[in-house]
């Protein structure tokens, strides 16, 4: 059995990578390591465990599954195609509860059978079914046998739904399931964040990639803006960045692509002027990627600064003196604060992974887009109509009332002189001259 166990184990591992598919799937989850996928279900073949029907079901239960149930010719074909030739497997079909009435142990309905000819025959108390991979002809026909027989096992369980099924990725991001049941979003250019919800902004003339903005100054196109290495670094700092640092082939390719077919030279932020032979990025980031020309750097004439010359070196780097006037590439973090992100005069604060709008008095909301309803508490009295203003309100009073909240009954007697012997009595937008008592 040891030799056959090794062969079975080898076959089982190969099948995981070759035959596991998501045919007919409506869910985007993933199966556990070692399980095969078909449709919305995962299947596990044992390779060296041969037990009776009851132990087989207990084994599957321990895996959070049940013995396999089969409901279509496509599923049957998938199971047969993945079996190890010459071995039989328990399936979860039994008439133990009622002789002659086979049911699936996982409680699913009978929608398909694949019995061998003249089976089931219940010859000698045969109450459990197995899949025979060839004895009764091709295709893995079923046969009923005593439940005490030892066979290999096929377990089946519904795939764990992926968080991608809820379509969490925004702004055109592509969702990918990961093995722990979570997900990751691959964001389109200009977006970032777990769900690609962060919309980055680069100013005019700057190009966006990932979390950064890049400015390209060709020494011929921008002749009057040519700089020494130090001058270029100062320029980039004035824009809120530094000479570009490069940390991957993808970033290097992006930079080279945006240099186009320039014949100019572009300074980048790589220098060994602090310690000869030890190049560092001027923005202080880790030197975790280099793309030097094979024969460079050579420090010929105190060449302590790196540049890219698309015409002669393509995307490869070379070292230079640094006092020559070349073009340059700046790099700075992309901003979450777009020109119209915060509304109504609010100030935008870039928090790297989000932004915050500091609203002027009278406004609220994520983007300060909402004028606070100063009439919400109904401040106007005596039937006055409230008119909402910015950070305030106005009460339009009914005749006879005045004051900020129409709280004052206008003194209609103020300018009235009653005839002798009479006194003025104020009403609401009226008065009376009554005899003195």
Automatic annotation (TrEMBL):
GO biological-process terms attached to the record: anatomical structure formation involved in morphogenesis; animal organ morphogenesis; cell morphogenesis involved in neuron differentiation; dendrite development; gliogenesis; neuron migration
GO MF annotations in UniProt: calcium ion binding; carbohydrate binding
Keyword tags: Developmental protein, Disulfide bond, EGF-like domain, Glycoprotein, Lectin, Repeat, Signal
C-type lectin domain: residues covered: 38-156, 209-331
Pfam families in UniProt: EGF, Lectin_C
Residues making up the signal peptide according to the UniProt record: 1-24
Listed transmembrane segments: none
Disulfide bonds: 187-196, 359-368, 397-406
Cited SUPFAM superfamilies: C-type lectin-like (SSF56436), EGF/Laminin (SSF57196)
GO cellular component, one term: neuron projection
Domain EGF-like: 160-197, 333-369, 371-407
Name of the protein described by the UniProt record: Fibropellin-1-like
Annotated organism of origin: Acanthaster planci
């Amino acid at each position: 059995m040891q030799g056959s166990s090794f062969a079975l184990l080898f076959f089982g591992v190969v099948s995981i990578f070759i035959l596991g598919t998501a045919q007919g799937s409506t869910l985007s989850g993933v199966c556990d390591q070692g399980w095969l996928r078909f449709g919305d279900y995962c299947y596990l073949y044992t390779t060296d465990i041969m037990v009776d029907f009851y132990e087989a079901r207990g084994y599957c239960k321990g895996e959070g599954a049940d013995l396999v149930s089969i409901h279509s010719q496509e599923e049957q074909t998938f199971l047969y195609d993945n079996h190890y030739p010459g071995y039989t497997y328990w399936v979860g079909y039994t008439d133990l509860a009622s002789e002659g009435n086979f049911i699936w142990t996982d409680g699913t309905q009978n929608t398909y059978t694949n019995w061998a000819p003249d089976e089931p025959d219940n010859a000698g108390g045969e109450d459990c079914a197995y899949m025979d991979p060839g004895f009764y002809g091709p295709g893995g026909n079923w046969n009923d046998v005593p439940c005490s027989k030892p066979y290999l096992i096929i377990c089946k369980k519904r795939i764990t739904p992926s968080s991608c099924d809820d379509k969490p990725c925004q702004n055109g991001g592509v969702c990918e399931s990961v093995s722990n049941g979570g997900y990751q979003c691959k964001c389109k250019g200009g977006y970032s964040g777990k769900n690609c919800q962060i919309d980055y902004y680069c100013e005019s003339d700057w190009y966006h990639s990932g979390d950064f903005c890049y400015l390209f100054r060709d020494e011929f196109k921008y002749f009057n803006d040519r700089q020494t290495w130090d001058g270029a670094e100062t320029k980039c700092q004035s824009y809120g960045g530094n000479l570009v640092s490069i940390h991957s082939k993808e970033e290097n390719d992006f930079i080279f692509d945006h240099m186009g077919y320039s014949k100019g030279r572009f300074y980048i932020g790589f220098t060994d002027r602090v310690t000869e032979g030890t190049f560092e990025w001027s923005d202080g980031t880790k030197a975790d990627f280099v793309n030097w020309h094979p024969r460079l750097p050579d420090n010929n004439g105190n060449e302590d600064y790196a540049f890219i010359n698309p015409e002669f070196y393509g995307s490869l780097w070379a070292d230079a003196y640094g006092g020559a006037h070349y073009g340059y590439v700046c790099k700075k973090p992309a901003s979450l604060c777009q020109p119209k992100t915060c509304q109504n005069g609010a100030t935008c604060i870039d928090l790297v992974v989000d932004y915050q709008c500091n609203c002027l008095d009278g406004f609220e909301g994520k983007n300060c887009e909402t004028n606070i309803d100063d009439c919400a508490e109904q401040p106007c009295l005596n039937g006055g109509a409230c008119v909402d203003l910015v950070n305030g309100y106005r009460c339009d009073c009914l005749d006879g009332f005045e004051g900020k909240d129409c709280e004052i009954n206008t003194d209609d007697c103020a300018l009235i002189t009653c005839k002798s012997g009479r006194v003025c009595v104020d009403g609401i937008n009226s008065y009376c001259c009554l005899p003195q008592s």
